[in-house]
Amino acid sequence: IIPPRLTLKSTLTQNSQNTQVYYATQFNQLPISRRTLFALTDNSYQYLTAIQKKALPLALRGNDVLGAARTGSGKTLTFLIPILELLWRLEWTHWDGLGALIISPTRELAMQIFQVLRKVGKNHSLSAGLVIGGTDFEEERERIGRMNILIATPGRLLQHMDQSTDFDCSRLQILVLDEADQILDMGFERTIDAILRNLPKQRQTLLFSATQTRSVQALARLSLKEPEYVAVYERN
Ligand code: ADP
Ligand code: MG
């Protein structure tokens, strides 16, 4: 296991001349839309977790982020909020097509992310869908062409990229690779490589992983641009 190269502190010092980073302990101190904030409040989210404190300001600023934190640390909101805010700022509508893509290792995790997105995204008028297989391919194909945010498992996503001519990701703004170590452990490395080749290079990318193995570092080099490294190691 390779330790992260930079702690947030050194990252911030390095960037302090030209950029401003918000420090927030509560969601209402973040530069986010009222739509998102009200949904967070409705779901009783008030204080940021450690990973959210470190990564949210950077992700909201548009940086690529490589985040390491254990399961249960609150990584889902760390990428869903930046997605909602980016598309909100771009005034993304139904007609703009796919703006955000979240890749998750398993159906179960994808469905969990979808449930959280439904809660925190409820005041936004964006469409979101799952691409996880288990349903009729044709039906899924018909549906995903109309989605602004997709949550997908790697195999099924690549199948759509290869076979669905109307699957258009040319306007993608933000990519999330969640549980990257698990994605790689499950043998999806080449699938992810192929997916990345189909995505526009100009985009924001957030990569989360519980551990930072060599293969995660390699994927980070392939997918991220000048990433900020953010890690939270709790003492138990
Ligand atoms: P991870 O993806 O890091 O494993 P999750 O995003 O699934 O973690 O979050 C784990 C749990 O913590 C969930 O039940 C979630 O609702 C809760 N949670 C996340 N962020 C906060 C927060 N800021 N305040 C309170 N609970 C939170
Ligand atoms: Mg998670």
From TrEMBL:
Transmembrane segments: none annotated. Residues 25-53 form the DEAD-box RNA helicase Q domain. Residues 56-230 form the Helicase ATP-binding domain. A motif (Q motif) lies at residues 25-53. It comes from the Eukaryota. Belongs to the DEAD box helicase family. The Q motif is unique to and characteristic of the DEAD box family of RNA helicases and controls ATP binding and hydrolysis. RNA helicase. This is ATP-dependent RNA helicase. The chain holds residues 26 to 261 of 671 of the full protein.
